[in-house]
Amino acid sequence: MSVFVVQLTNVAQGLLDTNGQSTGVSIQRGVWIMGPNKVNRLLHDGATFTDSNYWKRYAYPQVPQDQAIVSVVTDDGSVWVDNPPNARTFPVSETYNPGTTYNSTNTLDFLGTYGSYASYAQITATAAATVRINGSVEITLTANVAQVFNPGDLDISKLEFKTSAGATVTVFATVASVQNT
Questions:
Q1: How far is it, in rounded angstroms, from Cα 90 to Cα 106?
Q2: Are 151 and 119 a contacting pair, CB within 8 Å?
Q3: With CB atoms 3.0 to 4.6 Å apart as the test, which of 5, 8, 164, 181 could cross-link to 29 if both were Cys?
Q4: Distance (Å, rounded) from C-alpha 130 to C-alpha 167?
Q5: Range from 12-16, 23-27, 90-94, 167-171 that averages highest in pLDDT
Q6: 100 and 125 in one domain?
Q7: Is 56 in the same domain as 106?
C-alpha cells in the first residue's frame, strides 16, 4: 500500500479560506471521488491516507501538475489493474432486423448469454428505433447516429429493440467475464 496526501488547494485553483493561504491546506475543501472497486471516498484537503496505487491516476505526472489532487508520499511499486487479473474481455457484434414490437428475437441478453454485463456498447440503427435497456429504460435512436455507452457509464445486462419495418440495428459491445474455474 502506498501513502498519499490530498492537495486540493493549489495556486492554479485558488484558495477559499485564510487558513489555506497561510498553510496551503484548506479546511473548507473536500471532495467525493470514485475509488477502487467503485467505492466513493471523501478526500479532505491536506489529509494523508494509505491505499492502493489506484490513486496515482490523480497524481502528477499522470495528470498535469495544476490538475493533480493527490501527491504520492511513498510508493510501494505495485501496479493497479482496473479489471481483475482473471477477467477476460471480449467483443460482441450483433445485427438485428427488429419489428414494431419487443420480442425475444429482438433481444441481446448479455447476462443470460455471456454470464456478464456489457461495459461498453455502441448502438446504431438505419432508421429511427427504440431501445429498452436493462428491461426498464427506453431511449430513441436517430437514424444512422451511434448511441455510445462507455465503460463506467452503465452496466448493460439486456438490450431490446423496436423499429419500423425494414430497419437494421447494429450493436458493438465489450463484455468482461470472470472465469469461475
A1: 22
A2: yes
A3: 8
A4: 11
A5: 167-171
A6: yes
A7: no
Residue 131 β-bridge partners: 139, 161
Q: Is residue 93 part of a domain?
A: yes
Top mean pLDDT of 63-67, 106-110, 152-156 is at 106-110
Residue 163, classified by CB atoms within 10 Å of its CB into exposed (0-12), middle (13-18) or buried (19+), is buried
Report the alpha-carbon distance of residue 55 to residue 139 in Å, rounded: 35
Nine cell digits for residue 147: 448511441
Q: How many domains does the chain have?
A: 2
Q: For residue 158, give the amino acid letter.
A: K
* Residue among 170, 158, 160 at smallest CA distance from 106: 160
Q: Classify the C-alpha dihedral 108-109-111-115 as positive or negative.
A: negative
Paired sense of beta strands 169-178 and 118-125, if any: antiparallel
Of 60, 59, 20, 55, give the one whose Cα is nearest residue 41.
55
